[in-house]
């Protein structure tokens, strides 16, 4: 199989960092660099068999970046994707984020050289690793501040952030990855009204280009019952995002 590009393995809660990393790599190398991110609305399209598409994406990528955090470290899916990458003889790079240290990573991933996105030096080292593997020359002037800021922030270990709405919950953060993903729900104006009334800033973003709102601290809002399901809130090509008022811009 002809290998090319990068696969970013991540859990749903770390979608923001994964998308920022994708944008960062494309700025550093080229907008045409193939980068597979399962949650970017592009790597997996409507009608695709998602499991097969992900396995194909791992096997066909030259570099597999595995985002590791206190929340994702023990997730089976993260370890599965890393294992498929090793078996396919791709270069697998564990990358620690959200306060996780290298010494926190156990076997088998600790046997690989671990990078971090929690300092400028480490972010640059990761770029150099990828440049060497892909035989590309990176743009050294890429701004890493937004990526490092989000990768350094610690995530809440439990609990929900958001507001009650119409018998459900509009979640800005929380243990969403554990819930079944349902079809997108239609955006209604009073969803934004409820979020604003409880101290959140809202944003209707193009769902194919979330890098800028994510860099400004916004997260995709999902409606959930907190127990069984989650669904993103969309209207056409836009998706509802929110952040607590006062978030750093």
Defining key terms:
249 residues, alpha/beta, Rossmann fold, 2 domains, nine-stranded mixed sheet, five-stranded parallel sheet, 7 helices, globular
- The top-level CATH class of the largest domain is Alpha Beta
State the CATH architecture of the largest domain: 3-Layer(aba) Sandwich
Discrete helix count: 7
Structural class comes to alpha/beta
Mean pLDDT: 87
Distance between the termini: 43 Å
- The shape, in one word, is globular
What can be said about this structure in brief?
This protein has 249 residues and is an alpha/beta fold. The chain contains 7 helices and 14 strands. Helix 2 (50-60) crosses helix 3 (76-87).
SSE inventory with pairings:
Layout: E1 6-9, H1 15-28, E2 35-36, H2 50-60, E3 63-68, H3 76-87, E4 91-96, E5 115-116, H4 120-134, H5 145-152, E6 161-165, E7 168-173, E8 180-181, E9 185-186, H6 189-197, E10 200-206, H7 211-215, E11 219-220, E12 222-224, E13 229-235, E14 238-244
Parallel strand pairs: 1-2, 1-3, 3-4, 4-5, 8-13, 9-13
Antiparallel strand pairs: 6-7, 7-12, 10-14, 11-14, 12-13, 13-14
């Amino acid at each position: 199989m002809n290998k090319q590009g990068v696969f970013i393995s991540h859990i749903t809660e770390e979608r923001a960092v994964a998308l920022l990393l994708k944008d960062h790599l494309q700025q550093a190398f080229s907008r045409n660099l193939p980068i597979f991110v399962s949650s970017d609305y592009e790597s997996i399209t409507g009608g695709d068999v998602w499991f097969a598409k992900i396995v194909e994406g791992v096997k066909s990528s030259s570099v597999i970046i595995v985002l590791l955090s206190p929340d994702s470290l023990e997730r089976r899916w993260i370890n599965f994707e890393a294992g498929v990458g090793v078996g396919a003889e791709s270069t697998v790079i564990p990358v620690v984020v959200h306060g996780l240290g290298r010494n926190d990573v156990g076997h088998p991933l600790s046997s690989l050289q671990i990078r971090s996105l929690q300092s400028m030096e480490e972010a640059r080292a990761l770029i150099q690793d990828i440049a060497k593997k892909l035989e590309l020359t990176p743009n050294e002037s890429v701004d890493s501040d937004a990526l490092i800021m989000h990768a350094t922030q610690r995530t809440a270990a439990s609990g929900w952030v958001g507001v009650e709405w119409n018998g459900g919950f509009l979640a800005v953060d929380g243990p969403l990855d554990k819930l079944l993903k349902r079809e997108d729900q239609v955006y209604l104006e009073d969803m934004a009204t409820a979020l604003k009334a409880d101290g959140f800033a809202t944003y209707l973003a193009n769902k194919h280009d979330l890098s800028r709102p994510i860099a400004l601290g916004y997260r995709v809002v999902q409606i959930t019952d907190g127990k069984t399901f989650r669904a993103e809130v969309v209207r056409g090509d836009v998706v509802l995002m929110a952040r607590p008022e006062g978030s750093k811009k």
